[in-house]
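quick one, 522 residues, struct below
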Amino acid sequence: MKKYIFKVIVVVTVALTMISCQDWLTAPSPGVTKLNDFFTSGTTAIQSVNAAYMPLMWEFNATYFPEWFIGDVVSDDALKGGQSVGDMSIVYDMENFKTATNNAYLLDFYRAQYQGIGRCNLVLDEVPNMSNDSVLNTSLKNRLIGEAKFLRAMYYFRLVRIFGGVPKIDFVVNSSNQWKQPRASADSIYNFIISDLQSANALLWKKSKYAPEDLGRATKGAAQSMLLKTYLYTKQYDKAKMWGDSIINSGEYSLVPNYADNFTLAGENGKESVFEIQYMSDPTSDYGDGDGFTRGTFTVILTRSRASKAGGWGFNKPTQNLYNEYETSDPRRDATIINPTDDEIENPAQEIYLGDRYLNKKYAMMNPDGTYIGLTHPTRGPINIKVIRYADVLLMYAEACCETNNLVPAKWALEQVRNRAREGNAAILPAFPNYNSYTDNQTDLRKAIRHERRVELGMEGHRWFDLCRWGIAKQTMDAYAASETPAARAEMATFVAGKNELFPIPAAEIDLDPLMEQNPNY
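---
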């Protein structure tokens, strides 16, 4: 499948006009483009929206900061991995609940999201006032505005579930006296996200309307899926169910027959894809250059085996706890987790981390025979990161139905996911409630849906956020710690309820903006 990527544009700076009676003082500076002169064509509008997607791709600045370091590694699904406990020590601190306020990962992640928000604000400030031309018509203009609304909501969603309330910036910051802003409450941020997504839904196109080269852009289904998700996070289950009904009834999405196809290059932006972060092959080296200097993902090399044949760095190692969660016959386990043989482990001291030998398969880019696909550059991979799959939508919908006591559609949605996973073999993965000692009631259906989210979406960065929104992070992480190897258990600090569900606002940001308060107990 041909890969598509959004073009990067140079972000325009605002020229400050000097006021004087002398003509030479008021003449425009050479090489400076004013915003009013820049936003004059449809091509510019498209490029500006393209630039607003870019921070979603960023995974490296002063350090590596893909979101799965929190979604997987902080949870019971994965250990940090790497060469040793000191390799990416800032993530070691995070997974073991020892995070300091000067954590470089959190600072880079926080700032990347606000870069995205700033680019969205610029689009939303300028594009609505642009005149139509040979490129820009009213339909396209509305879609571009919808994309910017969706992206701004996505950036704020990524912030609020990690840090809680953050400053709500819905305007273009163009002077130093606008830098300092207080934190909005988490509820206020979630309401802002919902408002942006509702606007986006009204303006965006259905996926089927997009040309092939535009697949990967935000769609109406992506906005509705994020509304479903946000309403789950805010426990407004009736509204979540409503958006789930809308997506399912749209006919725009379906499960691909083969689960593992979701994690191949050929399977990208397919019928199960609701929203993916787009990457492509990039043969250039940008190590040390920071944000925005690559069009490839670091996730492939970060998660591949440290063995020479893979050339990876061995991070994000699935836990025994996750491995055991799969029913014995579940084919998704081997599509998610690599269990290398002793012969395949070249250097046990570097490849086995605190007793954990497993590897994440989903983003390893492997051939059917188990060999690794070669990369254009040794540290860059072209595979997209799956943010929302239709299977995720079905399970979120099942959850919303379960919590509103609509058990029949909840079981229907759950069964859609399990039926695909059993690959036509009725002898494996029985329908609810005929497994894991469940009985046919709401309480056990809730357990079954949570189990299914873990195994269906394993190693895709969802688990930590699910535990926190369900309010079971403390009990789950305590039970998980008790089951870990003595080596891993020795590194863990005690989970503190009311603190460790969130991470600290980076100290460098509070230094710049003293109006912000730190999260409790940091």
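The longest helix spans residues 138-163.
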